[in-house]
TrEMBL record:
Domain Integrase catalytic: 3-172
The organism's place on the tree of life at top rank: Eukaryota
Full protein name: Gag-Pol polyprotein
UniProt GO MF annotations: nucleic acid binding
A Pfam family it matches: rve
UniProt cross-references to PANTHER family, sorted A to Z: INTEGRASE CATALYTIC DOMAIN-CONTAINING PROTEIN, PROTEIN CBG26694
Length: 237
């Protein structure tokens, strides 16, 4: 199956899911690819597919129906019950394979984190527990590589938790500053890509036979952090 690697632009537009075991219990992690906001489902010991469908239906009604659901293609997700449910809700089910193992790496990373939390927070392996829920709350408040937490991406501010936080952390100006930083970074990425594409086109153009015109192209010099001009001489052939 063709895998859509385009980054999501809306919350819960594209999600990943994976099941895992801790002791004798089975869980499913359901995680948004844009914000990395995670939900954890405790699976039934019997009728796994029916239980999974009920939980997915609840999530869809609460946070929206995704366009894409990525899984590892295990029997739990590939069952006819789950496939029919996703078809009815018009969700594209992308399953990873041995030849494309990284396709569900996002969910696998979430599994590692959630598994550690379950093992550290509760001995009963029950998720309706203060320690686990507090840990999950702090996980959602923890900044990621982008500098923002899942809570900040989803709600535009951190969530109140048991960790003391200065009231200014909830102020809207912090979010505006982060938005401006994101916009500048995105603009720079777009400009860099545009200049790269122009350079590729330029090099192909100047190598063409019979070129008579003088062409000027601006390219971004990363090392010098400034724009430089690439100028070709006239073809005298």
């Amino acid at each position: 199956m063709w895998m859509d690697d385009r980054p999501p632009t809306r919350l819960f537009e594209s999600v990943s899911a994976d099941y895992f075991h801790v002791a004798d219990r089975t869980y499913v992690v359901y995680v948004d690819r844009l914000s990395s906001w995670s939900y954890v489902i405790t699976c039934s010991r019997t009728a796994f597919a029916d239980h999974l469908v009920r939980e997915l239906r609840h999530l869809f009604s609460m946070i929206g129906v995704p366009t894409i659901l990525r899984t590892d293609g295990g029997p739990q997700f590939a069952s006819s019950t789950v496939r029919r449910f996703l078809y009815r809700w018009e969700v594209r089910h992308e399953m990873s394979s041995p030849t494309y193992a990284r396709a569900n790496g996002h969910a696998e990373a979430a599994v590692k984190t959630i598994k550690k939390l379950i093992m550290a927070a509760t001995t009963s392996r029950q998720l309706d527990d203060d320690a686990f829920e507090r840990g999950l709350l702090e996980l959602r408040n923890t900044p990621r590589a982008s500098g923002r937490s899942a809570a900040q991406v989803l709600f535009r501010h951190p969530l109140r938790s048991g960790v003391p936080t200065h009231h200014r952390a909830f102020a809207p100006e912090w979010q505006r500053a982060a938005d401006e930083c994101d916009a500048r970074a995105d603009n720079l990425r777009q400009q860099t890509k545009q200049r790269h594409d122009q350079l590729v086109h330029f090099m192909a153009y100047t190598s063409a036979p019979g070129l008579m015109s003088r062409t000027t192209l601006q390219a971004y010099g990363i090392a010098q952090a400034r724009w430089s001009e690439l100028v070709t001489g006239e073809n005298t052939s």
